[in-house]
Queue: 2 jobs
Job 1
Amino acid sequence: MPSHREPRERLAKRRATEILDENRISESPVIPEHIAALFPIPLPIESVDGFPPDTYGALYKSGNDFRILISTSCPTEGHRRFTLCHELGHFFLDDHLGALFDGGASAHFSSTSHFRGQRKDWYELEADAFASELLVPTSLAQPLTARHRSGLHVIETLADTFQCSVSCAAIRFAALTDEPAAVIISKDGTVEWAAYSGPLQEFNWTRRRVRGDWAPRGSATRALALDHDAVRSCERRETTGYLSEWFDGSPHVETTEEALGLGSYGRVLTVLTPDRMPSAAAVKAKEDRMARGPDDWRGAMRDWGWDSYEDEDQD
Ligand SMILES: [Zn+2]
């Protein structure tokens, strides 16, 4: 989603790439502990109890010394590694240490639990962007997404290759794939966030807020979310449905839906891969025509299938 923060998030990613290049790190998985040890004064990393809920990492300042603290209740090794990269971001990115500590604070607790969909401070968004590029570098991950058929399988391959959480891999998949795809994280059937691949970002409906929406009735995601044991044991479900069941204003095109339980993380990952999409221009032309035409154009929109877009594409 474009925002005024985006250029700074891009710079944060570029900084991560520079650090990998400067240190000749070109193999997966990246080991954040090695990067922490590269500082003139190495950054100590400690595991500690007693963090606030959904908070996995902190930076602790004592005089001129810093320590990275990681919560022992971090749900997976992938979350732990992402959190570590996020804390490193606060060191490597401009203005971060000043923003965190100039007011006299001695600790910064990071909110890295799910890094889209909640309001965050600019330095948290930038540290997340830095962490995702450091942990899953574009240069290594893009060839991998291009090599495999789009879908959950690619996300699992990324998570496995880069030793990151499945939710982190899902975001990277959406950012890197050339195919139309949406990834969604939900808890108990309620959407927490969604990310869209480049071909879908052309459409206005992807800019709508989805946090708090329900997974559609009849979806594999809803069925899985109702079965907590299945979520905990990382079961998967697959079905086909329509994109318009998920996103208001999206075209009525058929999509494959894959849903995966995320174990102790307690959430469900959904991957939607529509077979084919009409062009954004075709959808816009159709909407304009409908807005000028029938009174109940919203009702008419709902009944559309692929065929009605195809006419527009051929115009
Ligand atoms: Zn932070």
Note: The chain has 15 helices and nine strands.
Job 2
Amino acid sequence: MIMQLVIPTGNPKSLIRLSLGDPTVFGNLDTPDSVVDAVIKQLKNKKNNGYTHSAGMPEARAAIAKKYSTPNAPLTANDIVITSGCSGAVDLAIKVLCNPGDKMLIPSPGFSLYQTIASHFGVRCAQYKLIPEKQFEVDLKHLESLIDDDTKCILINNPGNPTGSNFSKAHILDIIALAEKYCLPIIADEIYANQVFPGQEFHYFGELSKEVPILSLNGLAKQYCVPGWRIGWVAIQDKQDRFKNVRNGLLSLSQLIMGATTPIQAAIPDILFNTDPSFYPTMNSTLAKHALFLYDKLSQVSGLVPIKPQACLYLMVGIDVNKFSDIKSDVDFSEKLLQEEMVFVLPGTCFSIPNFIRLVYVAPFEQLEESAVRFADFCSRHMKK
Ligand SMILES: Cc1ncc(COP(=O)(O)O)c(C=O)c1O
């Protein structure tokens, strides 16, 4: 795909970036001081400047296990492998479950890294559909139709990027039942765990699965607003002991790169257990306020069909190209919006869903208000008369 999203020079309007899934870009969603202090403490004591176990520091693995255990899915330190960001966890999970030539099922729309890592390793991806009209639930019939003898796992991302969706407990149980029918393990990318809006409930796949082994992928990036710290992990949830080889495989693969940066690993127990508990709900409420504002405003613009988000950082907006006089596609829409209005969004084509755009709503509220005005002006200017 060739795209020309070049930031124009000479347009007097200020640039509004609604493109990057990074909560730190504007400084308004701040990392709590206690999280920063936890790392400073470790740097100052100079005790964690060396190498550590390739699967992560024992204290950090134990803290993650304690924090992310649920009554139905207790974890121990041995169930955790710390990685360089959640991207590292995606890499390990795919490589441990698939060999070159195997097939895995990934969501469409979905985070492009899955396909990038899989194809680099020679793993084929088949994309199962998410249904926009059902807030991007999985099209279970389509998912089932893709399963064949070569299929080695199903990758699910919940809450979702780029969809902003959060699956109900019933839907998660349906997905697990399908995986169980075909004896397929699940990779659950849960990097946005608990980052759901007031009124929504988040459920881990591992908490709801009895038979199907789950590799749950998570990290500090989004929940503590520190994507640059590059801390992620794989949590092995395997109630029936089916993953003995996978467990060993993960440990072997972790040795290829000597893990994530050690002073930050050393700070993990403090970060997870000494962060003000109000930080999280406050951030979620801010995100919900931003998301629902943009959703409401864009719902009133002819030619745009936003899908109500339930979680994390993302709003998907359908583009009804038939209503516009000179907009051919989501890519065309994104390019012209940037050139004329200085609003930067990503076309859905980046996530395998043409005729949608993805908005990230971490920007300060005033910028979102201004962007809503610019969207309305842009669409009305390009409307068919
Ligand atoms: C769904 C999803 N998984 C994984 C990642 C990678 O996370 P990290 O920055 O910790 O590597 C991202 C980052 O945006 C993401 O959106």
Note: The mean pLDDT is 96.
